[in-house]
Predict the structure.
Amino acid sequence: MNKIILSILVSLTCILSNAQDLKIYNLSEALEVANKNEVLILDLQDEYLEEIPKSILEFKNLEQLIIGGNSALTEIPEFIGDFKELWHLHIGPNDYTELPEAGIGSFQSLTKLKVNYTSIQKIPDSYTSLPKLKNLILIHNKIAELPEDLGNLKTLINIVVKNYRYKLTKIPKSIGQLSNLKTLWIERCQITELPTEIKNLSNLEVLTLENNKLTYLPDISALSKLTHIKLFANELKELPYYIGNYSELIELDASFNDLESIPNSLSQLKKLTTLKLNNNDISILPNNLEGLNSLEELDLSANFNKSIVNESIGKLNNLKSLYLSQNRIVTLPLSFQNLTELVWLNLSENNIEIMELEKLKALTKLEELDLSENNLDKLALEKLQKQIPNCIIHE
């Protein structure tokens, strides 16, 4: 799982991270506590409940509530909105089809709402009145629409929507009002275009739009704080010319698209460490790659073009991982031997000629080299193995 979303989910799942000495009570334990005000965290998972008992209202100071894993439980009662101190609500996994229209919308202290593995298709409009909500996490549901007034949630910092039924088709224009938003993660939906209002998210750091139907990006060049852009598995024909404007960018993943070329402005990304452009139709790299002096991982595999690497590749002096499989490569540029920091190199499923192996002997830091499916002579491979003895070579 990507490090960014993992960090978001860990912060939501590890509910004791900021309250180390607090006890997590199940229902039976909580009901036995003499002073019900001591119950701050209640976990109702796997309690075999058919309904949520109203007796939980005795826990007037409840701050964190986890509801899920009860197969017979089909609805969430509106009375849970009576918990005035609740700041973290975790719903699911379960087969809920809807959220209560009124109950949750009355929470005044709620900062984290996580709904995962349910059949819920929409977030009620009343939820856009939650005054302190910072994290809205919707994972593996059937979300088909987001509230049009999503922009009313001015305190939102992270939005994560990961569907598994590909139903969500649009992002509301009001999202541009979320000036505090740092993470926008919309994955496995049917988004075909982004609202131009996204350009107003001046504090956005993470933009993930994996597994959608995007064919282009609007002008979002003003998002100068972006550190991660993930566009995996869309239908993009090109990367925007302004891509080089993102001076803070660390990761760019545009793999599994329909890209044919890379803009020269890419070389301006001085802080970029990870670049994934695999499974596209890219014909050749730009000649000015020397600007990418922080790049450590480059994936150009499965572009099926023997000319995809040129002499500019040797300018990536800090490169540690390079993936070039499935490109019909016959010869390697002379500058290849300058990649002396490489630890992992994948040249599998190409047409590498034997004489090209001489350009690899200078890569003494290699730990793993994949040359499989190249029809290389065994003796030549044995010679190379002696030249880089600490490297595992896959034939």
Helices lie at 3-13, 27-32, 378-387. The CA atoms of residues 247 and 269 lie 6 Å apart.
